């Protein structure tokens, strides 16, 4: 294993710490910088980091153990993740992962001994419309197939630097198949700011309230009310946070907005800052989208140059607002707004007790608005064009859907709020679909007979994830994938969720292996009741949805997963379970392994 | 052998008047903390001995096991001997009760799963500072270790679970009282805990 020189580590820690003000609130950002440099956060660097950032070693190790994209041991020159999100899974991501591991002579998740490469499975990389997808050193890999996998393994074996890899491996397309109000009428840079410049915050809020805009991240909280509550909270300092931690399996609309409409999103943040009286904002960008960061930084810089951001917005020195980008590090839970704020503060992403809500005590305990990318994007358009324009297509305007899975045209679809599930399926060419998963793993499975249901505020909330399942798809695959996802992503803070998700995963594993019995069925029934009822936050609240939906909506498939109850059979291959010790003690030679 | 009749979805021991309920216990990969908690039932033990017969376990060092009504299992599975004992319990006990964090979730012993057996043994017997005659122990007297530590319900059917580290004495009290009274045990909320 690679050993790092202490002097190199010390220099790196001083540099990274200095670039982040040696502020413990930036501990996660500093750790990420080390991870990038050394492909790990070396154990020797931990006390140095603690010293440099005026914090404790426990704080630093708590981050390394929590965030998926931080590791204790070097991941090597090439750090690969292959997405095993259900959309990628359906396109054969598992086989591709094994093919790559076989070619490189590694096991999933284990660094190769020569320090060259690590290949790990991961969950959604937000590229479900062009999967199977992955990441190499933070850069997106799209449309993986056998030949691309073979190319990649050849490039790695020959130690070809990433900038000399064929560009087509990294091509990300942002395909928008249906444009409506928002995507159909582009906004000139600064339009929204110019139109609110002469309005009072009260007037802007009234207009926003009249538009009926609500949280596009899925929770559907009225945006104007959130902004008003933050504005009216007593404090000198307020913050705007753009939640770009788009982690729900199957959603990628925020990726498209950040890539093609970053100005509109930032303009929405600037409007919000004006209304609530904030001078500082953050874009919390998920680790999987690190490749979008240079583009976003460039857009921010251009806006500063155009007086649309910075010390004197539109030349008004009383209007000051600037934005910095904070990176996530592979934790789904950080999409929950209070966990996101904890992570912004450089801590583990553990959801906070609420109340107080972020609007009164958010970032650094100051009033904070946390809005989804699409919410801010929509708010900018409403500020520029007025509520009547947004309201023309019915209550609440339009919503973007990220469509993936078994369909001819996976991509982005903008539909009026209230459209039916079937309309989206038809538009995407999902003929013969047997089911759709709306709102991702935390959402709901809808069978074909429910396709007439409307996607609106009261009946079917969605974050924008829309995964179509074709006639040959086994819905248990989806249930198993989502259940394992939640078991991996639970933050571990509260027992009902931590234990419940692990128990659910172990039952699902046995269902998959044909070793689930009647008592497991009872256990699942209990988990479905208990876990959501007792969990601390929404993750535990929704973690049992996949099992519940399979049980309630596909009873035949569900029942077939269980065998008759057993009494005394030993479910165990003792010889197999003794393989390691036998090898170690020479009972069986290593070559036979 | 006394018969067991299903009531609802669980089994309750039925017995003839004057006949004692036969109980056995074992500690697999555990710390005997659950057994200590079981002994902590205090004066109830006076009542219990009239109704229960403790036929096998670490408290009397009997190894043989036959026609047992209730088997109480503490600890996880970490070696081949644990597996054999558990198999013997499952085959000879009408009801099997998993007690404690290790039996139910793997607990403390399962922490080695994060590192892997090979890494643990190498660290302990080969690579650690101060090791003389580095060698992985191998002896017929030593049960061989499993690749992974497992909770017992991954390997056999378990009828009841008493969670806790250890389960409070009150939970054992309720278990024994219910057995004696021939009813389903009912645990108060504060008796069901995970730490």
UniProtKB/TrEMBL annotation, chain B:
Pfam families: Oxidored_q6
Cofactor entry: [3Fe-4S] cluster
Keywords recorded for this protein, A-Z: 3Fe-4S, Iron, Iron-sulfur, Metal-binding, Oxidoreductase
Domain NADH:ubiquinone oxidoreductase-like 20kDa subunit: 31-178
InterPro entries assigned to the protein according to its UniProt record, in alphabetical order: Hydrogenase_assoc-protein (IPR051349), NADH_UbQ_OxRdtase-like_20kDa (IPR006137), NiFe_Hase_small_N_sf (IPR037024)
Presence of keyword Oxidoreductase: yes
UniProt-recorded Gene Ontology molecular function terms: 3 iron, 4 sulfur cluster binding; oxidoreductase activity
Origin superkingdom: Bacteria
Keyword Metal-binding recorded: yes
Name of the protein in question: NADP oxidoreductase
Source organism of the structure: Pseudohalioglobus sediminis
Lineage of producing organism: Bacteria, Pseudomonadati, Pseudomonadota, Gammaproteobacteria, Cellvibrionales
